[in-house]
Design brief:
single chain, 494 residues, alpha+beta, 8-stranded antiparallel β-sheet, 27 strands
Length: 494
C-alpha cells in the first residue's frame, strides 16, 4: 500500500511453481483457445439480456421506483462500547489511591445494515459491531429497535443481527446472484455515510472477484465506483433488478472520502453466511488442488494463443479434485462457464458456491478441452489438529502449535497449506515470541534437519534441541531458516 493511499473500513469510528512444458502434437493455438472458449460457454448458465438505452425517453427513466422499494430495508446500525480505561499511576502517586479515578468512556460508532428476512434478521459488517456492548437499529421510517448479535464471521467480515418487532413484518432486500453480475452493470449503494442520514448513490460494477485487497482473510469483492463513504459499511449494493449484489465494506481513499473505488462482499457469499448462521458454522468448499497462473511460456507450450487459466501443480490424494479426474499439468480455464484467469479467481468462483453443489470445470489436457464435474465438499479435519502447548526449556517453549488439515487451513485463512504443523498462538512470555523467531501462521518444517511430522512430535524434537537448534519454517510461502544457541544467540536467513 502506498503512502498516499489508504484502505478504509467504512464504519464511522501467487503460488510459486517450477516451469514445465507439455508435449503436444499438431495443435493449432487459435483453434485450441476457441475450443476451450466454446466448451466453457456451453457449461455456462443462461445470462440475463443486457442493453444500452436506445432513446431519449429511456435516458429520462428514473431510479426512484427501485429506490423506494429498497430503502426501507436498509437500516442504520448504532453501537456503543464502554472503554474502561485503566487508572494512570500518576494520580495514585500525587493524589493518593482511589482519588481522581478516570470514569469509563462510552465510544459510539455508526454503520449500516440490510434486512434479509422479514422476521427481523439484519446483515451488516463484523467490524461495525465487533466489541459492541450495545447495538441499536434504526429503520428508514424512524422506528428503532435494540438488536442482538446472533452470528459473526471475521473472515467474511459479516455479522447477523436480530431485532424483535412484536410480530410486525419488516421490508427486505432479496438476495441476488452476484455470479451473474457483469462489469458495467449499473448498481445503487444505500447507506448512512458520515451519519448525515439515509443516502443513495449510483455507479457501475467496476470489477468482479477482486482479490488481494487486504480487507479480510477471505478476500473476494465486487468493486464499484458508486460513491460510498464511512458509515456506508454494512449497507446495500443493489442491482437494477432490485436484488442485493453485495454488502458495502471498504474503500480505497487518500482522504477517507470516496474516490470511486469501493468494495462489496458478493451476495452469494452473504447467502453462504446466512446458511451458516442456521447451523452455527460456515462450510466453505474444498477443492484439494493448487496451481499457478498460466505464463506466456506455458501458454505457448500448451497451444494457447494467450496466457489464460490456472495450471494445476498439486492435487491432494482423496480430494474432490482427484475424484473428478483433475491431474497435475491440467490447465483450468473456467468454472461453470466463467473465466478462471488466476488462482484467486478460481478460488472465488468455487467459494461462492454452497457445499454439496456440483460445478463444471473446463480444462485443457493434452491439447484437448473438456469439462469435468466436481462435487463440492466441506474440508475434512484430517489429521486431527491435536493442539499442543510446547513445554520445557527450549526456545519454542510457550508456543502453541497444531496439525494443519484442510479444515483448519480454511478456518485460519491466509492461504495456509492443507498439511504441516502451524503456530496458532503463543504465551506473551514465550522466548520465541520475544526474540521475534516465530509468529502465528508460521509453518514449522524441520528442527536440526529432521522434518516436523506432528504437533506432538515437535515437543520431543524441541526438548532434544534445547541448547542448540536450527529451525526451518515457512511464512507467507517463503522459507526461512534460523539458528539459535542458548542463552541468546539467534541468526536467521531467508
Amino acid at each position: 500500500m502506498t503512502a498516499n493511499r489508504s484502505l478504509w473500513l467504512l464504519a464511522a469510528g501467487a503460488i510459486a511453481g517450477t516451469s514445465f512444458a507439455m508435449a503436444i502434437d499438431k495443435i493449432e493455438p487459435q483453434a485450441s483457445a476457441q475450443q476451450v472458449a466454446a466448451l466453457a460457454a456451453a457449461a455456462a448458465p443462461p445470462e440475463t439480456p443486457r442493453r444500452v438505452p436506445t432513446s431519449n425517453a429511456e435516458l429520462m427513466l428514473s431510479y426512484a421506483p427501485l429506490v423506494k422499494a429498497s430503502v426501507p430495508a436498509v437500516v442504520n446500525v448504532y453501537t456503543a462500547r464502554v472503554n474502561r480505561t485503566r487508572r494512570d499511576p500518576f494520580w495514585d502517586l500525587f493524589f493518593g489511591g482511589g482519588r481522581m479515578t478516570p470514569q469509563p468512556r462510552v465510544e459510539q460508532s455508526l454503520g449500516s445494515g440490510v434486512i434479509v428476512d422479514g422476521s427481523g434478521l439484519i446483515v451488516t459488517n463484523n467490524h461495525v459491531v465487533e466489541g459492541a456492548d450495545e447495538i441499536k437499529v434504526a429503520l428508514a421510517d424512524r422506528r428503532e429497535f435494540p438488536a442482538k448479535l446472533m452470528f459473526t464471521d471475521k473472515q467474511l467480515d459479516l455479522a447477523l443481527l436480530k431485532v424483535e418487532t412484536g410480530g410486525a413484518a419488516l421490508p427486505v432486500v432479496p438476495l441476488g446472484d452476484s455470479d451473474s453480475a457483469e462489469v458495467g452493470d449499473v448498481v445503487i449503494a444505500i447507506g448512512n455515510p458520515f451519519g448525515v442520514g439515509q443516502t443513495v448513490t449510483h455507479g457501475i460494477v467496476s470489477a468482479l472477484a477482486r482479490t488481494g485487497v487486504g480487507i479480510s482473510d477471505y478476500q473476494f469483492f465486487v468493486q464499484t465506483d458508486a460513491a460510498i463513504n464511512p458509515g456506508n459499511s454494512g449497507g446495500a449494493l443493489i442491482g437494477m433488478d432490485g436484488r442485493l449484489v453485495g454488502i458495502n465494506t471498504a474503500i480505497y481513499s487518500r482522504s477517507g472520502g470516496s474516490n470511486g473505488i469501493g468494495f462489496a462482499i458478493p451476495a452469494n457469499m452473504v447467502r453462504q453466511f446466512i446458511a451458516g448462521a442456521k447451523t452455527g458454522k460456515i462450510s466453505r468448499p474444498w477443492l484439494g488442488m493448487a496451481g499457478q497462473p498460466v505464463t506466456s511460456e506455458i501458454a505457448r507450450a500448451s497451444g494457447l494463443d494467450r496466457p489464460m487459466g490456472v495450471v494445476i501443480n498439486e492435487v491432494t490424494k482423496g480430494s474432490p479434485a482427484e475424484r473428478a479426474g483433475v491431474r497435475v499439468g491440467d490447465i483450468v480455464y473456467a468454472v461453470d462457464g466463467k473465466d478462471a484467469s488466476d488462482p484467486d479467481t478460481l478460488r472465488y468462483l468455487v467459494a461462492s458456491k454452497p457445499v454439496g453443489e456440483t460445478v463444471k470445470l473446463t480444462l485443457l489436457r493434452g491439447g484437448k478441452a473438456e469439462n469435468v464435474a466436481l462435487k463440492l465438499v466441506a474440508p475434512p479435519e484430517v489429521p486431527a489438529r491435536d493442539t499442543t502447548l510446547l513445554a520445557g526449556r527450549s526456545i519454542l517453549a510457550g508456543i502453541t502449535v497444531a496439525n494443519l488439515s484442510p479444515a483448519l487451513s480454511a478456518e485460519l485463512g491466509g492461504g495456509l497449506p492443507d498439511a504441516g504443523v502451524v503456530v496458532i498462538g503463543a504465551d506473551p512470555r514465550a522466548p520465541a515470541l520475544r526474540f521475534g523467531l516465530v509468529q502465528p501462521g508460521d509453518i514449522l518444517e524441520a528442527v536440526n534437519g529432521r522434518a516436523v511430522a506432528s504437533a506432538k512430535g515437535l515437543q520431543a524434537q524441541a526438548n532434544a534441541a534445547a541448547a542448540e537448534m536450527t529451525l526451518r519454517m515457512s511464512r507467507g510461502g517463503s522459507t526461512r531458516e534460523c539458528y539459535f544457541r542458548a542463552p541468546s544467540s539467534l541468526q536467521c536467513r531467508g
